[in-house]
Design brief:
By secondary structure, this protein is an all-alpha fold. The protein is 64% helix and 0% strand.
């Protein structure tokens, strides 16, 4: 069965794609699966991980929104996966690899979105970047400290998915682009739904380049990537459309993200700072998974724990530790 997949990849994938049989392998050798390629196995491992399940209760942009149709970190991840697979398919790249990277790219994200990331980055002597934490999740923290033992290509794509990263595979580049396309476009939807933005306020050059609705904007971006990259040893947008996307991203930061963040910034910062201080001073109260790390690196262990929390769980732990209960002395 797996040989059929290898044969299909040899026959149909671009010479610039990363074929499953050419993987650089895992940190620890394992017996190969008779049915699935290594990238298919990685995809399954990510989907069945605890960190992946927690994404459904982590903020994307709007915290605890009054409505059922706002993006969470999980729906954003699925969106990135769909766009990355579309890019990979039209360029004859390895869809399985792109999907595995996309599904794992935000596993290390903090509660309360990028506010949580900024707080931990300011508190920890090591700093904190969610892409690095996502790699730590799959390498170290999952499966009760054993890690998922993913392939090099998937690990590399997870680590390098931010705009500043340099993925080793074109599939990793596709995920990086898909991430930006996904969050910019669906954050626009959420911002309009929340009343932070009116569609007519979007930059005119971006509307001219990408269109007036989410479906059109995403489709335009994918088609542009195909036209620019098909048969080439790279994956990128045309210079004109990339400039427009960057302008749209800047617009969202200035007009939406900062305004939305202010609504929860004070509360989220207070909660995370207090939790960080509490567990730094009392590392013995960390859950068992983090105690071995705490023996040599308390800040790392505390960041591991806090970044694993969902929004709701962080609030519940904060209340348990810091909010007096009725009848308490």
């Amino acid at each position: 069965m797996k040989k059929k997949t290898f044969d299909k990849e040899d026959a149909f994938l671009s010479p610039h794609a990363k074929k499953s049989a050419e993987t650089a392998g895992r940190l620890r050798e394992e017996e190969p699966c008779v049915m699935r390629t290594e990238f298919q196995r990685d995809r399954d491992r990510v989907i069945y991980s605890k960190a992946f399940l927690r994404l459904k209760n982590k903020t994307q942009v709007f915290f605890a929104p009054d409505g059922d149709h706002y993006m969470s970190r999980l729906t954003h991840t699925l969106d990135v996966s769909q766009i990355a697979r579309s890019i990979a398919r039209c360029l004859s790249l390895n869809e399985d690899l792109a999907e595995a990277i996309a599904l794992g790219h935000d596993l290390g994200h903090t509660p309360f979105g990028h506010i949580g990331e900024r707080v931990l980055n300011s508190l920890s002597p090591h700093g904190f970047r969610h892409s690095e934490q996502s790699l730590r999740v799959v390498d170290v923290l999952e499966k009760d400290g054993k890690g998922l033992n993913l392939t090099f290509e998937v690990r590399d794509g997870i680590l390098n998915h931010p705009k500043s990263g340099r993925p080793a595979t074109l599939e990793g580049v596709a995920v990086s682009l898909a991430d930006r396309i996904a969050y910019i476009n669906h954050d626009i939807e959420d911002a309009i739904r929340a009343g932070f933005l009116k569609e007519e306020e979007l930059p005119r050059d971006a509307v001219r380049e990408f269109g007036t609705d989410t479906r059109t904007r995403i489709n335009t971006a994918i088609v542009d990537i195909f036209n620019e990259s098909n048969g080439k040893p790279y994956v990128r947008m045309s210079e004109q459309r990339q400039k427009a996307l960057d302008g749209l991203r800047t617009f969202m930061f200035e007009h939406v993200y900062e305004r939305a963040n202010k609504l929860i910034q004070e509360s989220a910062e207070r909660m995370l700072r207090n939790l960080y201080t509490y567990f730094t001073e009392r590392p013995e109260e960390l859950p068992p998974l983090y105690l071995s790390t705490a023996e040599t690196d308390v800040p790392r262990a505390v960041c591991d724990y806090l970044s694993s929390m969902t929004d709701k769980y962080a609030i519940s732990v904060f209340k348990r530790l810091f909010v007096p209960r009725e009848g308490s002395v």
